[in-house]
Design a protein that fits this description.
It comes from Cohnella faecalis. The structure is a single chain. By secondary structure, this protein is mostly helical. The protein has a domain of 46 residues. It contains two helices and no strands.
């Protein structure tokens, strides 16, 4: 039973590593977009007027929110899987 639990934990660990890589890629995109926004001039930006400026800032905000939501989902997935593993280990210890 312990070998099975160990194998499950190894697979979960690999799965979480892949999710972390995806989140890191999203983080890098968000950071790059932030750098682009910081590089915009403060005076007379050529963003097709106020509409273009609002659209660009909205896009950056959506990217940041999506990244933060992905982090929350990742934390939930880790917590759920570890909860199941701990429950299974507890049950096997009682037997």
């Amino acid at each position: 039973m312990e070998e099975l639990m160990t194998e499950i934990v190894v697979h979960l660990s690999q799965s979480h590593q892949q999710m972390a890589r995806i989140l890191d890629a999203k983080r890098q995109v968000t950071v790059r977009l932030s750098h682009i926004v910081q590089g915009l001039p403060d005076v007379q930006p050529q963003l097709n007027g106020l509409t273009g400026l609002l659209g660009s800032s909205s896009q950056v905000n959506k990217s940041i929110v999506a990244y933060l939501n992905s982090l929350a989902d990742f934390q939930d997935a880790v917590a759920d899987s570890l909860t199941n593993v701990v429950k299974a280990i507890t049950v096997s210890d009682e037997e």
